[in-house]
TrEMBL record:
Pfam families, per the entry: BPD_transp_1
Domain ABC transmembrane type-1 per the UniProt entry, residue ranges: 73-263
Family as reported in the entry's similarity comment: Belongs to the binding-protein-dependent transport system permease family.
InterPro entries per the UniProt record, alphabetical: MetI-like (IPR000515), MetI-like_sf (IPR035906)
Lineage: Bacteria, Bacillati, Actinomycetota, Actinomycetes, Micrococcales
Compartments (UniProt record): Cell membrane
Membrane topology: Multi-pass membrane protein
TM helices/strands, residue ranges: 12-36, 72-98, 110-129, 141-163, 184-206, 242-263
Protein name: Carbohydrate ABC transporter permease
Top-level taxonomic group: Bacteria
Chief place where the protein resides: membrane
Keywords carried by this UniProt record: Cell membrane, Membrane, Transmembrane, Transmembrane helix, Transport
Length: 277
């Protein structure tokens, strides 16, 4: 009886997991299938039916038409790469200062800075927008990236806790060998912190690639439009042509799928640490 109940419990767990997987993957499968259908096929065939015949007409329309989706992809790559590099660099430097450098008010300043995590991001949109307007950076690349380039409270918190776990003896030994603070950070701390840095790289890359609200607010034309905003505008631009919209959606998630396939362990670790909040 005990073995039977265990088998039934295991079977029930797998059924629930399978149902969850189907519910999660169905929208992505629907998007990918629709991307290779004509509008007529989309209207006449079942939603999850394979395209018959397959067509790349939607991709041609998306890149050759007035949507400017190719430029939006390029802007998104440039924005995400810029913010990723600068946010990780500044977060590492700030986290090391909070973890290993003694200066007056260090703990108080850290907790005050960390308290900004409690402020909803949407509350900061209007002040940031007014600042960018005053600086003349509205609808520019710098206005798009600067507010998120100088570190992240969440990243600094994680890195600080990880840096504090590095044995002090290693830092002291490097200092006795004549290493400066920057040398210790670059040659000792960073190499020992590769797992957490790789995790933060993935978290930052995914969050910036999916960024929508700030690019929508700070940009107004096609020049610095990102993929999320471009995809949203397609719904009105193509007047309900869902095959083109689904093509844009599918292309927008391809880089994230590639990240998952190339770095599955780090991505799972990032989900465990962050919960993708």
């Amino acid at each position: 009886m005990r073995s039977t109940s265990r088998v039934l419990r295991t079977a029930a767990i797998y059924v629930v997991l399978l149902a969850g997987a189907v519910i999660t993957l169905a929208p992505f499968l629907l998007s990918a299938m629709t991307a290779f259908k004509t509008p007529q096929q989309f209207a006449q065939q079942p939603a999850l039916a394979a395209p018959d015949p397959w067509t790349v007409e939607n991709i041609v329309t998306l890149f050759a038409g007035p949507a400017g989706f190719g430029r939006a992809l390029g802007v998104t790559v440039l924005m995400a790469a810029f913010i990723l590099v600068f946010q990780i660099v500044f977060s590492i430097m700030a986290a090391y200062a909070f973890a290993r450098v003694d200066f007056p008010g260090r703990e108080a300043l850290f907790w005050v800075y960390l308290a900004t995590l409690m402020v909803p991001a949407v509350v900061l949109v209007v002040p940031l927008y007014l600042m960018m307007v005053q600086l003349g950076l509205r609808d520019t690349f710098w206005g798009l990236v600067l507010p998120f380039s100088f570190g992240s409270p969440y990243a600094i918190f994680l890195l600080r806790e990880y840096f504090r776990g590095i044995p002090q003896d290693l830092v002291d030994a490097a200092r006795l060998d004549g290493a400066s603070t920057l040398d210790i950070l670059v040659e000792v701390v960073v190499p020992l912190s590769r797992p957490i840095i790789a995790t933060l790289v993935l978290i930052t890359a995914v969050s910036q690639w999916n960024s929508f609200l700030w690019p929508l607010v700070i940009t107004s034309g096609d020049t610095w439009r990102v993929t999320t905003v471009a995809t949203a505008s397609l719904q009105s631009q193509y007047n309900g042509n869902w095959t083109v919209v689904m093509t844009a959606t599918t292309l927008a998630i391809v880089p994230l799928v590639v990240l998952f396939l190339v770095f599955p362990k780090h991505l799972v670790r990032s989900i465990t640490i962050s919960g993708f909040r």
